[in-house]
Design a protein that fits this description.
heterodimer; A: 334 residues; mainly alpha; ABC transporter involved in vitamin B12 uptake, BtuC; two-stranded antiparallel sheet; 15 helices; 1% strand; B: 444 residues; 2 domains
Chain lengths: 334, 444
Amino acid sequence: MLAIEIFSVSFFVAMVLNGITLLFGCLGETIIEKAGHLNLGIPGIMYLGGIGAILGAFIYESNATNFNGFLAILCALFFCILMSGLGACIYAVLTVSLRANQNVTGLALTTFGVGLANFLGGSLGKLAQGGSGLFVSVKETSDAFTFYIPWLSEKTGLFGKLFFNSSYGFLTFVALILAVLVHIFFKKTSIGLNLKAVGENPQAADAAGINVTKYKYVAIMVGGIIAGLGGCYFVMNYLKGVWQHGALGDAGWLAVALVIFSLWRPLRSIWGAFLFGALTVAYNYLHASTSQQEILKMLPYLVTIIVLIVTSLNKRREDQPPRSLGLHYFREER
Amino acid sequence: MILSSVVDQYFRLERYAKILKVLAQIFIVVAIIAVCVLGAYLLVNLIRSRQKRKQEDPEEKNTKIPLFRITKQKELKFWQKLIIRVGIFLVGFALYMMIINLITGASNAQILSTLFKGNFGSSINIWALLRNTFLLFGVGVALIPVFKMRFWNIGAEGQILVGGLATFAIMKYLTPAFHNMQFLLFIIMFLGGILAGMLWGIFPALFKAKFGTNETLFTLMMNYIAIQLVRYFCIKWEKVPGSGDVGIINNVFGSEYPKVGWIPNNFLSSIFGSGNYVLLLLLVGVVALAMYVYMKYTKQGYEIKVVGGSVNTANYAAIDVEKVTIRTVLISSAICGFVGMLIVAGVDHSLSPNLAAGRGFTAITVTWLGNFNMGFMLIISALLTFFSAGAKRLASDISLNASMSDVLIGILIFFILISEFFIRYKVIINRKKKDKEELANASN
């Protein structure tokens, strides 16, 4: 019954597009979790990033007389960063300065972010099409995001189709480079080591002269913005610039799951992202009935649970979550 | 209304008007949030400024003194807490009104009357408010013991869903056999819901207790497995192929066993009118009462508190931490499954992946912000239900996008979180103290 169609180019491309979205979210969440904050607001932040990109592109497209792809991308990215930064900022102020419970704040941020994104999406739809506009489309900007080098993508046969597909755009490669950079950041730079110290043991880090509050703020902001880029990537590359209600689906939660799967390691998260991407789209490419498809959609979550259990079983110290994950730090409380 | 016209005046650029207006509104909202937070902070400081301050160490004179510092608050009096809570909540509510006002241009009176109409407009609205408040409160009650134990069960959503799923399955397959013995059917449904909830709770609990597996992430993932499972059965049992809709079970019209397995909604209808949810409220009330007694007066409740306070202490006191963990999570997830059963048998009479409607997540906020106090929890659930139902009414009456309800709920929760900060900590501005010190030095 489950005939396999997963050796097709379109499957590979869908896998990459979904995987890179999760990779952005995962890298952002990894940075935040390394600072000791479990940010369950990542789905909300990704929605905010996605709608930010749509908003920026919409504003640019409806105002520009001569469409310039570069400016459109800049405008979209600017608003994407602004919106996801706003979400991350709310989370940072509440959990770092005001020491609110991280789980509650994160879940509230997800409600807020998803709601705001759908609200703005609906409003833009109305602006664009009047009355009952159900979706908003920024096709031109989306095309600008997915620019490609014709020779590499079209003349090199299967190689080009798989690795330089015309729908990848530049953000795919940005994500991969970013993963390597984050890896180097944590392994080789003193700032990265300091950040890890903040997440493991903020008391010790504070005693060593590290400004814990500053590190946490910067990590949450940067992580949030990177996760927001994931939302931008998804709407621009996978959805081709069309925003509908609830466009991003469960991508944010999968990104949180991917962090666990990758054991907080950026390099591992690259292939993890592709695996998750494959698992999320697999149902489309296996000849399963609609009900079986729903069962297949469980796969990424099941895999995450298995990884969670296995890592807690083997008790390797380098595989464990940051030790102060989820706890707030208050200097006077020792 | 006023703000809308201000925006109109300043941004009357024909071509860009629409977009700039949206943008300007967004930025004004952000600015208002910032001003409100600052205002609340200054207000609370003003109240606090009379409190006695301790003398600084003389050593600190040479070091750079930050603008303000934060210390732990001594236990406040009840009325002080109340003032802070109500005050900051009102700020949040003002913001809520302002945002709706900005977007729709409706007057404050209009918004208020729509809010009340949406909740108290008819007996259906009132019962919906009560019912949803109590369902949310019920999930909140389920989370009390686990959170007291510092076990972060954020899988209530999934536990509700599987509880509902089991109930629906039992109604679907056992109604023909038990339609003459409704009471027995109810008991089977009750057990089914509870066992399904427990099944969803036992795995995270077992692995947490035996191997220390992170329960926050485990329970979170279990939610999505439950959602997919329900989606699977929705398609499996759908009425019209391709719709994914299972329809109303044992419907009044067109089914052999009308209303069998439904929790009766005409209980004491001479007093409460027909279509009431008194039985549902009573059932949740009984669970809440039982939980209160369990936590306060039983040995097991005490053990939970000890484990939550410190696992080491619990070990020294010869409390079997593994056993307590598993038992407590089972109780919690059983109540969640029970709420799922109430939703299916008492309210929806149907199955959908949306039947928990985010209650599992919202209840986390309710329990945590209610600080395990059932009175506060009930008030918070009522407020959240009130504002979400009100926003939905606003959506239909004055053309507000329905997603705005989520945004507003999010903002209210943020404000409640801010008020918690001011109750637990106090902010001291150092500037005045510095001046005092300098004065003291000069006089010496």
